[in-house]
Write a structure and sequence with these properties.
Helix content: 25-40%
Structural class: alpha+beta
Oligomer: single chain
Radius of gyration: 19 Å
Number of strands: 6
Number of helices: 5
Distance between the termini: 7 Å
Strand content: 15-25%
Length: 200
Protein backbone atom coordinates (compact mmCIF):
# COMPACT_ATOMS: atom_id res chain seq x y z
CA UNK A 1 0.00 0.00 0.00
CA UNK A 2 1.26 3.46 -0.82
CA UNK A 3 1.32 6.61 1.24
CA UNK A 4 -2.05 8.47 1.25
CA UNK A 5 -2.04 11.25 -1.32
CA UNK A 6 -1.50 14.75 0.05
CA UNK A 7 -3.32 17.44 -1.91
CA UNK A 8 -2.41 20.52 0.11
CA UNK A 9 0.84 22.24 1.06
CA UNK A 10 2.06 21.86 4.62
CA UNK A 11 4.59 24.45 5.84
CA UNK A 12 7.43 23.54 8.14
CA UNK A 13 6.31 25.77 11.02
CA UNK A 14 5.05 23.62 13.87
CA UNK A 15 3.80 24.79 17.25
CA UNK A 16 3.27 21.42 18.85
CA UNK A 17 4.47 17.92 18.06
CA UNK A 18 4.39 14.68 20.01
CA UNK A 19 6.47 11.58 19.49
CA UNK A 20 5.03 8.38 20.88
CA UNK A 21 5.79 4.73 21.38
CA UNK A 22 2.75 3.83 23.51
CA UNK A 23 0.41 1.61 21.41
CA UNK A 24 -2.89 3.02 20.15
CA UNK A 25 -1.92 6.66 20.57
CA UNK A 26 -3.01 7.64 17.07
CA UNK A 27 -6.64 7.18 18.13
CA UNK A 28 -6.06 9.40 21.17
CA UNK A 29 -4.50 12.11 18.99
CA UNK A 30 -7.34 11.84 16.47
CA UNK A 31 -10.02 12.19 19.15
CA UNK A 32 -8.27 15.22 20.60
CA UNK A 33 -7.94 17.03 17.27
CA UNK A 34 -11.52 16.20 16.30
CA UNK A 35 -12.83 18.36 19.16
CA UNK A 36 -12.58 22.05 18.13
CA UNK A 37 -12.60 23.16 21.77
CA UNK A 38 -9.39 21.20 22.36
CA UNK A 39 -7.67 23.05 19.52
CA UNK A 40 -8.82 26.41 20.84
CA UNK A 41 -7.62 25.56 24.34
CA UNK A 42 -4.30 24.20 23.04
CA UNK A 43 -3.61 27.39 21.10
CA UNK A 44 -4.45 29.46 24.17
CA UNK A 45 -2.20 27.34 26.38
CA UNK A 46 0.76 27.61 24.03
CA UNK A 47 0.30 31.38 23.80
CA UNK A 48 0.07 31.82 27.59
CA UNK A 49 3.41 32.83 29.14
CA UNK A 50 4.45 30.41 31.88
CA UNK A 51 1.83 27.78 31.05
CA UNK A 52 4.52 25.33 29.91
CA UNK A 53 7.89 25.18 31.59
CA UNK A 54 11.00 23.04 31.44
CA UNK A 55 11.69 21.33 34.79
CA UNK A 56 15.21 21.31 36.19
CA UNK A 57 17.23 18.12 36.52
CA UNK A 58 16.82 18.40 40.29
CA UNK A 59 13.04 18.53 39.92
CA UNK A 60 13.02 15.53 37.58
CA UNK A 61 15.23 13.54 39.97
CA UNK A 62 12.95 14.41 42.88
CA UNK A 63 9.83 13.43 40.95
CA UNK A 64 11.46 10.16 39.92
CA UNK A 65 12.27 9.37 43.55
CA UNK A 66 8.69 10.14 44.57
CA UNK A 67 7.39 7.91 41.80
CA UNK A 68 9.70 5.06 42.80
CA UNK A 69 8.63 5.39 46.44
CA UNK A 70 4.96 5.25 45.40
CA UNK A 71 5.61 2.19 43.22
CA UNK A 72 7.43 0.42 46.05
CA UNK A 73 4.60 1.23 48.47
CA UNK A 74 2.07 -0.20 45.99
CA UNK A 75 4.15 -3.37 45.62
CA UNK A 76 4.21 -3.81 49.38
CA UNK A 77 0.44 -3.42 49.50
CA UNK A 78 0.07 -6.13 46.87
CA UNK A 79 2.16 -8.52 48.96
CA UNK A 80 -0.16 -8.01 51.92
CA UNK A 81 -3.43 -8.60 50.04
CA UNK A 82 -5.31 -11.67 51.29
CA UNK A 83 -6.94 -14.24 49.04
CA UNK A 84 -10.45 -12.86 49.61
CA UNK A 85 -9.49 -9.20 49.43
CA UNK A 86 -9.86 -7.03 46.31
CA UNK A 87 -6.68 -6.09 44.53
CA UNK A 88 -5.67 -2.47 45.10
CA UNK A 89 -5.77 -0.20 42.08
CA UNK A 90 -2.39 0.75 40.68
CA UNK A 91 -1.79 4.48 41.13
CA UNK A 92 -1.32 6.66 38.07
CA UNK A 93 1.76 8.77 37.37
CA UNK A 94 2.44 11.38 40.04
CA UNK A 95 3.65 13.82 37.39
CA UNK A 96 1.84 12.69 34.23
CA UNK A 97 3.11 15.40 31.87
CA UNK A 98 6.68 14.07 32.21
CA UNK A 99 5.72 10.39 32.25
CA UNK A 100 6.14 8.34 29.07
CA UNK A 101 3.08 6.32 30.13
CA UNK A 102 0.86 9.36 29.61
CA UNK A 103 1.40 9.27 25.85
CA UNK A 104 -0.92 11.44 23.78
CA UNK A 105 -3.05 12.26 26.81
CA UNK A 106 -0.47 14.94 27.53
CA UNK A 107 -2.35 16.98 24.91
CA UNK A 108 -5.39 17.12 27.18
CA UNK A 109 -3.22 18.06 30.15
CA UNK A 110 -1.73 20.99 28.25
CA UNK A 111 -4.99 22.16 26.70
CA UNK A 112 -7.41 21.69 29.58
CA UNK A 113 -5.44 22.22 32.79
CA UNK A 114 -5.24 25.69 34.33
CA UNK A 115 -2.03 25.18 36.31
CA UNK A 116 1.49 25.40 34.79
CA UNK A 117 2.57 22.16 33.13
CA UNK A 118 6.15 20.81 33.15
CA UNK A 119 7.19 19.54 29.71
CA UNK A 120 10.41 17.80 28.69
CA UNK A 121 11.28 18.46 25.04
CA UNK A 122 13.23 15.67 23.37
CA UNK A 123 13.02 16.31 19.65
CA UNK A 124 16.09 14.14 19.13
CA UNK A 125 13.85 11.14 19.88
CA UNK A 126 12.62 11.44 16.30
CA UNK A 127 15.85 9.81 15.10
CA UNK A 128 15.74 6.92 17.59
CA UNK A 129 15.73 3.95 15.21
CA UNK A 130 14.74 1.49 17.93
CA UNK A 131 11.97 3.13 19.93
CA UNK A 132 10.40 5.90 17.85
CA UNK A 133 7.72 3.94 16.03
CA UNK A 134 5.31 6.80 15.27
CA UNK A 135 5.33 10.59 15.16
CA UNK A 136 2.25 12.80 15.25
CA UNK A 137 2.38 16.49 14.39
CA UNK A 138 -0.44 18.89 15.14
CA UNK A 139 0.25 21.94 12.99
CA UNK A 140 -1.73 24.79 14.52
CA UNK A 141 -0.58 27.30 11.90
CA UNK A 142 -2.55 25.74 9.06
CA UNK A 143 -4.65 23.27 11.12
CA UNK A 144 -3.28 20.05 9.74
CA UNK A 145 -2.72 16.69 11.44
CA UNK A 146 0.28 14.73 10.19
CA UNK A 147 1.16 11.09 10.89
CA UNK A 148 4.61 9.57 10.36
CA UNK A 149 5.76 5.97 10.77
CA UNK A 150 8.97 5.03 12.46
CA UNK A 151 12.54 6.04 11.87
CA UNK A 152 13.68 4.35 8.69
CA UNK A 153 16.63 4.29 6.35
CA UNK A 154 14.91 3.03 3.23
CA UNK A 155 15.40 5.84 0.74
CA UNK A 156 12.04 7.47 1.47
CA UNK A 157 12.11 11.24 1.44
CA UNK A 158 10.35 13.66 3.76
CA UNK A 159 10.80 17.33 4.56
CA UNK A 160 9.13 17.84 7.93
CA UNK A 161 12.10 16.72 10.04
CA UNK A 162 15.51 17.94 9.06
CA UNK A 163 18.90 18.96 10.33
CA UNK A 164 17.46 20.73 13.38
CA UNK A 165 16.41 17.33 14.72
CA UNK A 166 19.54 15.59 13.44
CA UNK A 167 17.70 13.62 10.76
CA UNK A 168 19.76 12.97 7.64
CA UNK A 169 18.36 13.03 4.12
CA UNK A 170 16.67 9.75 3.26
CA UNK A 171 16.21 8.86 6.92
CA UNK A 172 13.63 9.56 9.56
CA UNK A 173 9.88 9.08 9.87
CA UNK A 174 7.98 8.29 6.70
CA UNK A 175 4.81 10.35 6.05
CA UNK A 176 1.71 8.15 6.25
CA UNK A 177 -1.03 10.75 6.03
CA UNK A 178 -1.90 14.44 6.37
CA UNK A 179 -5.36 15.87 6.91
CA UNK A 180 -7.03 19.23 7.44
CA UNK A 181 -8.71 19.46 10.84
CA UNK A 182 -12.08 19.67 9.08
CA UNK A 183 -11.38 16.54 7.03
CA UNK A 184 -9.92 14.11 9.55
CA UNK A 185 -9.79 10.34 8.94
CA UNK A 186 -12.13 7.97 10.72
CA UNK A 187 -10.89 5.81 13.57
CA UNK A 188 -10.86 2.81 11.22
CA UNK A 189 -8.75 4.72 8.70
CA UNK A 190 -6.30 5.74 11.42
CA UNK A 191 -6.03 2.15 12.63
CA UNK A 192 -5.44 1.02 9.04
CA UNK A 193 -2.30 3.14 8.90
CA UNK A 194 -0.76 0.83 11.49
CA UNK A 195 -1.62 -2.23 9.45
CA UNK A 196 -0.20 -0.55 6.34
CA UNK A 197 3.09 0.23 8.08
CA UNK A 198 3.57 -3.37 9.21
CA UNK A 199 2.38 -4.98 5.97
CA UNK A 200 4.94 -3.22 3.80
Amino acid sequence: MGIPKVTHPVPRSVLFSILLTVPGQGIVVLAFVADPSNITNLKTALDTPGKLYTPTEAQLDGWLNETNDATNAFTQRLLRVGEDEPMPEKPGPLYPSVSRDTGAKVLDLVANTSRPIPIVKELEFIRDTLFCEWAYVIDLDVEVLEVYAGNRDDGETQTRFGEAEGVKAGQGPVPMGMWWFDGLPTQAEMEALGAQEYDE
